[in-house]
Design a protein that fits this description.
Elements lengths: L4 H6 L18 H24 L5 H18 L6 H36 L10 H24 L2 H15 L11 H24 L5 H28 L1 H39 L5 H6 L1
Helix pairs in contact: 2-3, 2-6, 2-7, 3-4, 3-8, 4-5, 4-6, 4-9, 7-8, 8-9
Length: 288
């Protein structure tokens, strides 16, 4: 990849060798968490050229890496204290938000196109496919341009430098030197308990926007529990791996629900636009 002038001037040399040996069952909590951070940092930066080239699924994968990094920093605060990681977590959230804006256009457009495939041809009234394409194409292009500008910015260069510093260690939390198999599982269980509370609260609510918001919050907690378990797996073993798979199923089910909530809103917006353009809005009602 040829770097432009802005990248060359603002991006410092990476200070650490990303990667390293995988944690073992007898690893310390600090070694296990740092190894996970380095792995996800490597994933994030290796995906950057693909994101710049707008390759399929690259934005999603880079977003996942930023979320895994944030989840580890938040979950294992007794290993890497907030004083060392709080600012970095905020910057990862900034990057993840930009990746999310680029990704959401892909997901919603795809969701609506897939839904249209299930509609009988005689019920596709008006230029429905063209309106969906015309609605999302400029939004997606603008989000991608904003993301590229961020990747070329000094702020992103500073994020990479700070990520290198934190991942290089040493971890200074009070539990960093303790065995990973003793420290990481309780941290994962704390996140899981939060997910259970949020899910219980959502299930008790009546159907409607309030419940949708509550389910989305439960999904975030389930995702964080999954990522925390994945971070613990190399040191903890099969039990953490099985738990992560179960949390992925929960996250996926709640994610499908959230996608449907957002797509329903978008179908209404598209229907209003079609009506104002003197088109028949019948099909958008079916999508809703």
């Amino acid at each position: 990849m040829t770097m432009n002038t802005t990248q060359t001037l603002t991006r410092p040399e990476r200070q650490i060798a990303i990667g390293g040996p995988r944690p073992r069952p007898d690893s310390s909590a600090g070694d296990a968490v740092l190894a996970h951070l380095r792995t996800q940092a490597q994933a994030m930066t290796s995906l950057e050229p693909r994101v710049r080239a707008d390759e399929f699924d690259s934005v999603h994968q880079m977003r996942v890496a930023t979320r895994r990094l944030r989840a580890a920093l938040r979950t294992f605060a007794l290993v890497i204290p907030d004083t060392d990681s709080q600012h970095l977590a905020g910057e990862l959230q900034w990057l993840g938000r930009l990746l999310g804006q680029a990704r959401d256009g892909e997901v919603l457009a795809g969701h609506l196109r897939d839904s249209l495939h299930t509609v009988a041809p005689e019920l596709l009234i008006g230029p429905v496919q063209a309106r969906v394409q015309g609605h999302y194409a400029p939004r997606r292009a603008a989000a991608h341009d904003e993301l590229l500008a961020a990747l070329d910015s000094p702020r992103y260069a500073r994020l990479l430098a700070e990520l290198d510093r934190v991942a290089a260690g040493p971890p200074r939390g009070p539990q960093a030197a303790a065995p990973a198999r003793d420290i990481l599982p309780p941290a994962v269980r704390r996140v899981y308990r939060q997910a259970k509370r949020r899910m219980r609260r959502a299930r008790r609510m009546p159907a409607g926007p309030g419940r949708d918001i509550a389910l989305h919050r439960a999904r975030k907690s389930a995702r964080r529990a999954r990522y925390a378990a994945e971070a613990a797996t190399p040191a903890v073993g099969p039990q953490a791996r099985r738990f992560a798979r179960q949390m992925k199923k929960v996250q996926s089910a709640l994610g499908d629900h959230q996608d449907a909530v957002l797509a329903r809103h978008e179908a209404r917006v598209l229907g209003i636009g079609a009506h104002l353009a003197d088109e028949n809005a019948f099909t958008y009602g079916l999508l809703y």
